[in-house]
Amino acid sequence: MIFSCFCPEILLDNADLEKAYSDPKWTAKKILRKTGISSRSISGDMLVSDMAVKAAEGLFEENGIDRSTVNFLLLCTQSPDYYLPSTACIVQDRLGLPTTSGALDFNLGCSGFVYGLSLAKGLLSGGIAENVLLITSEAYTKHIHPMDRSTRTIFGDGAAAVLISREDLPNIGDFVLGTDGSGYKNLIVPSGGMAIPRSEETAKEQTDESGNIRSQDNLYMNGPEIFSFTLRTVPDMIHRVLEKNGLKQEDVDHFVFHQANRFILESLRDKLSIPEEKFVIDVEETGNTVSPTIPIAIKRAMEKGRIKKGEKILIAGFGVGYSWGATILQL
Hints:
Elements: E1 2-6, E2 10-13, H1 14-21, H2 28-35, E3 39-42, H3 48-63, E4 72-76, H4 87-95, E5 102-106, H5 112-125, E6 131-138, H6 149-152, E7 158-165, E8 176-179, E9 187-188, E10 206-207, E11 213-214, E12 220-221, H7 223-244, E13 254-257, H8 262-272, H9 293-303, E14 312-319, E15 323-330
Parallel strand pairs: 4-5, 4-6, 13-14
Antiparallel strand pairs: 1-7, 2-3, 6-7, 8-15, 9-12, 10-11, 14-15
Helix pairs in contact: 1-2, 3-4, 7-8
């Protein structure tokens, strides 16, 4: 299993946000203390397909991979280039992957990387593919109103590419997956789909009780509800995935969770009593990039020598949907 990632060069740091908000409650230091984030990668004019191609090209070049051996492309995004065709088809062409390759998009957020691995495992186990290219590419900042502090301070953009081959199957454990669609309204872009088409009405800006400005065309996040869902759901998921894989918590070398923000991650670490040295938090320089956070964190930890070959990693994604998933990897 081979990892690569791409984060756009445009950065939005806390000093920029302090200037934009001119509010003593939202200084650069206070934003860092609240979120654990000091800067965020911003896609700007780049599309999800652009970032996906950058991540995949980096994977091929860094590891000397022959792209003609890829025979399935999975692309996770909630910000596709078009309603149709699938962005995966565009990326297949731009990467020069064989026309005999399968390719599809799947729409998931914070749990997307874990679900993508489960799909890849199924394709490999079923003999449908020999080498699966899993790309997570997300551009939430395109959905955010610049004066919505509840989201702009947290989210960044980026992409990750992972090559999973049949020989990797013994190193991918059993999965625990879950869904609770009753919470769908708590992290949502209300307009733009068939339920609420965009219009002059949906573009009207409103100010919430906390002073954040957004319209129905923008991303909305109910932070307290997302936090409650996380603390309610994730600890049980961690216990279940350990049990399903015949492991105890002490058998795991590293825990790499969806990098939501430092506050949520520290709350989970404390609730689960995970030693600090085993728990990866890497959100300060990139922000919450949604589906790419886990592979980006793994790649960066490997580059720093923190995660080493052969170690067991418990990965867990959770958020928008609500959707959650976890498994064990041995790199």
